[in-house]
Amino acid sequence: MTEPAKTLYEAAGGAPTIARLVEAFYRRVAEDPVLRPLFPDDFTEVKARQTRFLTQFFGGPPLYTEQYGHPMLRYRHLRFRITPKHAEAWLACMSAAMQETGITGPLYDAMFERLKRTAYHMVNTPDEDADRPTGQGADRAGGLVGIDNA
């Protein structure tokens, strides 16, 4: 008999790994000049939501849906001006966080491919429009990627 295939969540090490990944990711976001302005000053709620989202996204328990409903990522991010430059910065932070967390090889490839498709799906503004006023400063509490006040 063969064992059932593991989810990406299980293969990565479950909740402890996702928690370390989120911590490593937000340390990078805090220092990133492209991403930092899009996030709230206090990452506490953003990290909690991101942990729930990534747990579910990679095949773990449906923590995000249980707490907030269907992720509807693109809809929840429409109020933010997200450019390809933002997606690339987000992916760079996540890639480095994954490597720091010990997610490598084929597991890294599979997880990062899912994240890459999702990050580029969030893009709603061409880079050349990024400097237009957005009104985001008054609404920074929502954050990005799996994070929303809705």
UniProtKB/TrEMBL annotation:
Chain positions covered by the region annotation Disordered: 125-150
Cited Gene3D superfamilies: Globins
Keywords in alphabetical order: Heme, Iron, Metal-binding, Transport
Pfam (any one): Bac_globin
Keyword Membrane: no
Gene Ontology molecular-function annotations: heme binding; metal ion binding; oxygen binding; oxygen carrier activity
Cofactor(s) the protein requires to work: heme
Record keyword Aminoacyl-tRNA synthetase present: no
Family to which this protein belongs: Belongs to the truncated hemoglobin family. Group II subfamily.
Name the record gives this protein: Hemoglobin
Species the sequence originates in: Alicyclobacillus cellulosilyticus
Higher taxonomy: Bacteria, Bacillati, Bacillota, Bacilli, Bacillales
